[in-house]
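Pipeline run #58 for the internal structure catalog. This entry was flagged by the ingest filter as a single-chain record with no existing model, so it goes straight to prediction. Upstream metadata was stripped on purpose; only the residue string is passed forward. Reviewer on rotation: M.T. Logging verbosity set to normal.
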Amino acid sequence: MTTQRDTLCVTLLVVTFAACTAPAAAYPPDNAAVLYYRAFMLYEPDQSTNSMRDDYWHGQIELNETLEAYLTKNQRVIDMVLDATRIDRCDWGLDYSQGTEVVLPPHHKARDIFFLVAAEATMQANKGHHKKALQRCVAMYRMARHLNERPIICYLVGTAVTAATHKCATRFLSEMPLETETLTWLQAELNEFDKRPFSIEPALAWKREAAIISMSPERIDNAVETGLDDGDAKTLIRKRIRGADPQFYTANVTYWNNFMDRIEAAFDLPYARAYAELGKLDKRPWEEFEMNPEATLTVCFAPPLQRIYSLSVRLKAQSNALRAAVAVYLSRARTGGLPEALPAHVPTDPFSGRPFEYTRTEDGFVLQCRGRELSKDEVYTFEFKVK
């Protein structure tokens, strides 16, 4: 029986072979995915240490000998991942000709790799190496961008890594002495990400293309079986595709393209309007497909749009709050006191499109969104401390 580890080894060999345009001894390779695959293969999480590791990077326990030995043992894997994040190109070697049935990269392994690097970054911060700790955060932001392959699940994995990295960076900034040089460097690194923003757009574009590939007589049976739970809708779809002619598929592709046009347009609207429009679009194929055969296959492929959109805006709020906070910290480092108001030109709250509400506190400051996340009926507050 082929194991998950065997599959990962084969994938690594394929990607490594495809990437080898340079001499075999060259290191690092020109494809970051080669190093990530190697790290995923080499890293073996210690189940007895996992809970301790996670409590540590969350700042809930102190460093101890067991944790330090665990991090030392895995230093090779950590260094390999850090090397991968310095490489611009990242090709995971996916066969996109398979449409929605494309075999995904082992991104679930990235979760454990992140925990490992987050724990090592926490150790660096605890030992007073604050810039090294923040360098690990910047590396994880780069890793998240590498993980953001075209399938939506890859976007979601990258989102989780980015959100967790925000937590680490916030804690490190709250605990470190404020140094102008380090904060200026961090601000420049965060600004550099604007050239390659973490975005849902590639995933939406691929979702359109993947579904069209799978909307063919040769592929549709598998797509229906894997894309829907059993029920009346699945029964009706099976019946329709059994007697489908070429015009059925042409009409369904046209419906799907029009549907995706509306999705992409909705993502560009102001938050409240986008949220409402995507809620309608989530329901539209289901409301229409029973009486409209042209909506049949869209039911199989439409993702949970409103939920994904909410997640993307929530992440944007976290990212913008961190960047605004770095500007505040930098002002404090330069002047010796927290500014009376937010510095000019800092990112805004994406829920409202307005600047964050800025409040100084006894031990730092708070940034609060002025708009409410509608899916949770919640206004987000981000707390930053000053040492």
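catalog note: Strands lie at 357-361, 364-368, 381-385.
catalog note: The chain has three domains: 4-196, 215-303, 310-385.
status: ready for reviewer M.T.
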